[in-house]
Each structure stands twice: as structure tokens, then as C-alpha cells.
Amino acid sequence: MDIYDTVGSVLTGETDFREIRKQLEKEAIKAFCAPPILSDRRSIVSKYDERNTTVAASTKSSVLALTHQLDTAIEGLGGKAINSALKTHSADFDEI
Question: By Cβ atoms counted within 10 A, which residue in 8, 41, 77, 83 is the most buried?
Fold first, then answer.
């Protein structure tokens, strides 16, 4: 719908002026407000993705080091259960 049709439909009473105003406000928000907000959001997401990846990698290496220490320090069924749980869940950090 072009501007002439819009103005004509308002003047003939086919379309309510308030509806046209709402549509114009929505389009103005999409054109002027949304792009900077979306750009800021992308920047924040990429920044924290990098930080989360770093923290997950360091935590995973700490868990693996802890597993090795527990393996040498604890013997028996308790040590095996702890090591098994740590090995099972150490892959969870890759999903972050």
C-alpha cells in the first residue's frame, strides 16, 4: 500500500487514523530504534561467549587435574566412584 492509498483510505473512512499512526510508530521503531539495540546485543553476546568459552576450558582442565590427583590419593570404591563422576561430567564443559 503506497502513501496515496493510505491517505485516501483514511479520508474516505475505510481505515482509522489511529491504526495508521500505530503502523507508522511500529515502522519507525523497526527502522530507528531496533538496529542499535540489536547491534549492542550481538556485541554483548559475542563478548560473553568468548568469556564463557575461556572459563569452561579452564574449569575442564582443572577438573581433569583434580581427577588425576584423586586417582592417586584415594583408593577403593569411593575413589573409583568420584573419578567416574568427574570423567562423566567433564564433557559437560564442552557444551558451554
Answer: 83
For cell 569452561, name the residue.
56
State the amino acid at position 21 in one-letter form: R
> Whole-angstrom Cα distance, residue 93 to residue 74?
24
pTM: 0.39
Angstrom distance (rounded) from CA 22 to CA 16: 10
Q: How far apart are CA 54 and CA 48, in angstroms?
A: 10
pLDDT tens figures, 31-51: 888 888 888 888 888 888 888
- H runs (alpha helix) in 1-96: 3-12, 17-28, 34-73, 77-90, 92-95
54, 96 contact by CB (below 8 A): no
